[in-house]
Design brief:
CATH topology: Growth Hormone, Chain: A
Order of helices and strands: HHHHHHHHHHHHHHHHH
Shape: globular
Radius of gyration: 20 Å
Distance between the termini: 18 Å
Helix content: over 70%
Number of strands: 0
Strand content: under 5%
CATH superfamily: MFS general substrate transporter like domains
């Protein structure tokens, strides 16, 4: 009997959404929790903002380095089994990071932690395409990404205020405990896989063939560029805005300045809404609208009024996550062969952009200041917009390949 995937009315579909939401929370709370305490970390260790931001950038670099190896492991042991190993390993490493004796050890462990965490974003969307009916994967992917926004916000909102009260170690230990609880939810809820069977025939050549196929597709390359450029700018804003808010211009205390990460709620809403917008307006229009909205939000943060800065952050966050949710779903729909490698490459670009741009724009902040950071973010969004207009066809589902059987496109 042909397996077409779980439907929204099924118990397994709901368990998948809740389980992957918990995995997204666990992954992104750990990945970005140091971002909520960067000013505290910089002051405590007497380092520059750019050096403090390495605690974020090295973790995202680890994700970028690991997503392709994880896709190969998943082909051999199964998507779900690989994600289970990744989430348990990262939970242990989260505790070790909090207990690091010095900055060097912390940065080394953050790199390894990022490599472990890479197993979740590398495989989650591919898993959804395997297990969920093809007509509902966009909505399911949007639900997963909304879980990542909750996780990203939770990690920062827990770590930031706590660091100002009790120090960065207890703050990171608290985040690690929350992530461990979310990991248990994931491990308990996920149903037995039915849409993909691992094979020992998966080899380095299989991975290489999938990579070559993806890199020959101009539409996929444009989608990878969206991830790198938009994520890089987005992370840079969140890396360095807290330094501005806690500086002489606004003089907010650390426990208050870190609350800017509550703006992630706008991303939670917009990423969920893309599941409704895409069928109505088409993927390219939603992607372009999200990019323009992100750039407009960045410009609003130039204001000297705190309320306008916060509004700009909300607008930027909503626009970014709408664009990201759309672009990541487009990759899975576009790739008819080597889907695991195609989605892994998107994550390489996405987290590579986060690591590189999120670090480099620290020098823009330390030099010319906030206007230079915003100018760079708007420039990155403009390049992403031009590439999307040039390379993504403008039909209703622009990045989708010609129709084929939903299960024919899996491998």
């Amino acid at each position: 009997m042909t397996w077409d995937g779980h439907l929204p009315a099924s118990r397994e579909y709901r368990r998948i959404l809740v389980g992957l939401g918990a995995a997204g929370l666990a992954t992104f709370a750990q990945l970005y929790s140091p971002q909520g305490l960067l000013p505290t970390l910089a002051r405590g260790l007497h380092v520059s903002p750019a050096d403090a931001a390495l605690s974020v950038s090295l973790a995202t670099l680890g994700v970028a380095l690991a997503v392709l190896p994880w896709s190969w492991v998943a082909d051999r042991v199964g998507r779900l089994r690989a994600m289970q190993v990744a989430i348990v390993t990262s939970a242990v490493l989260g505790v070790l990071v909090a207990l690091s004796p010095n900055l060097g050890v912390l940065l080394g462990l953050r790199l390894v932690e990022g490599m472990a965490l890479g197993g979740i974003p590398a495989l989650a969307v591919t898993y959804l395409h395997d297990e969920v009916h093809a007509g509902h994967t966009a909505a399911a992917a949007a639900a997963y990404i909304s879980g990542t926004t909750i996780g990203g916000a939770a990690g920062r909102l827990i770590a930031g205020p706590l660091a100002g009260l009790v120090g960065w170690r207890p703050a990171l230990l608290t985040v690690a405990a929350v992530c461990a609880a979310a990991s248990v939810v994931f491990l308990r809820l996920m149903p037995r896989p039915r849409g993909y069977r691992p094979t020992s025939a998966a080899s380095a050549r299989t991975v290489a063939d999938g990579i070559r196929t993806s890199l020959r597709d101009p539409a996929l390359l444009a989608l990878y560029a969206q991830g790198a450029l938009l994520m890089g700018g987005f992370v840079a804003v969140y890396n360095y805005l807290a330094f501005r808010l806690e500086g002489p211009e606004f003089a907010l205390p650390a426990t208050v300045g870190s609350l800017i990460f509550a703006a992630y709620a706008a991303g939670t809403v917009s990423s969920r809404l893309t599941g409704r917008w895409v069928p109505r307006f088409g993927r390219r229009r939603v992607l372009l609208a999200g990019t323009v909205t992100m750039a407009a939000g960045a410009l609003l943060t130039l204001a000297s009024a705190l309320a306008v800065v916060v509004l700009g952050l909300l607008v930027l966050t909503a626009g970014f996550f709408a664009a990201h949710a759309t672009a990541s779903a487009c990759v899975g729909a576009r790739a008819t062969t080597g889907r695991a490698q195609a989605t892994a490459l998107y994550n390489v670009a996405y987290y590579g952009g986060s690591a590189l741009v999120g670090w480099l724009l620290g020098y823009a902040w330390s030099g010319p200041g906030w206007a230079a950071v915003v100018g760079a973010v708007v420039a990155l969004a403009t390049v992403a917009l031009v590439l999307a207009l040039a390379a993504l066809p403008g039909r209703r589902h622009p990045a989708a390949a010609p129709e084929r059987s939903a299960r024919d496109v899996r491998r």
